[in-house]
Amino acid sequence: MNLLVLSLAPVVVIAAYIYFRDKYEKEPLRLLLFALLVGGLTVIPILFLERFLDRFTVLFPWLFAAAWKAFAVAAFSEELFKYLALYLLIWKSPEFNEKFDGIVYAVYVSLGFAAVENILYVMDGGLSTGIMRAITAVPAHAIFGITMGFYFGLAKFYEKQRQSLKQKALLFPILLHGIYDFILFTEIGWLTIVFVGFVVYLYISGLKRLRELSRQSIYNTDYDLLNEKLSNTKP
C-alpha cells in the first residue's frame, strides 16, 4: 500500500499544481479525470508498439541500439499515443478555448500514462525506485506534456502556422524524451552528470513554457473582459 501511495503521490502533486496554475476558467474536473484515464489506457497500445519496435534493437551495435530504444521504441511510441489521445480528447472540444488549455490536458494525459508506468516500476523496484522516479521520471513525463501542450495550444489559435505547430507538438516531446532515455540506456557512468543537468534543463524549460502561455491566457482574458464591458456600456 505504501508503495502504491508513493507511486501516485508525484502524479497527484503535479496534477494539482497544473490545475491551480490554470487561473482563469478552470477545466471541468470530469474532463480532467477522463484525460488521466485516457492517458493510462494508452499504456496498452504503447506496449504492443514498443514490443514490435524492440525486435529491431538487435540489429544495432551498442550506442545505436541505445538510441533506437530511446528514440524509436520508448519516445516515439509513448509520445505518439499521448498525442493521439490529446487530439481526440480536446481538439474539437468547446472546453479547448485558451492556449493554456493545451498544456493542462496534455499534462493530464501524460500523467495518466506516468501513473500506470510508475506503479509498475515502483512495485518492482521498491522504495528507492519510487523516490528517484518521483523527482525524475514523473516530472519528466509532465514536462514532455507541457512541451506538447504548449505547441498544441498555439496550433489551435494560430491557423496560418497550425500544421508546423502540430508537428512541433509531437516532434519536440519525442526529442526531449529520447535524449532523456538515451542518457540512461547508454549506462555510461560519467553521463550521470549530463543526466542531472538535462533534468534541470527540463524543469527550467517546462516552467518557462508554463509562464509564457499563462501570461498569454491572462492577457486574452483581460482583453475579453474589456470588450465585454465596452459592449455592455450604453452610449
From TrEMBL:
One of its GO terms (biological process) is proteolysis. Keywords: Cell membrane, Hydrolase, Membrane, Protease, Transmembrane, Transmembrane helix. It is a multi-pass membrane protein. It holds the Pfam family PrsW-protease. Its main location: membrane. It is found in: Cell membrane. The keyword Protease applies. The chain crosses the membrane at residues 31-49, 56-76, 102-122, 134-154, 174-204. It comes from the Bacteria. Belongs to the protease PrsW family. This is Protease PrsW. It comes from Draconibacterium orientale.
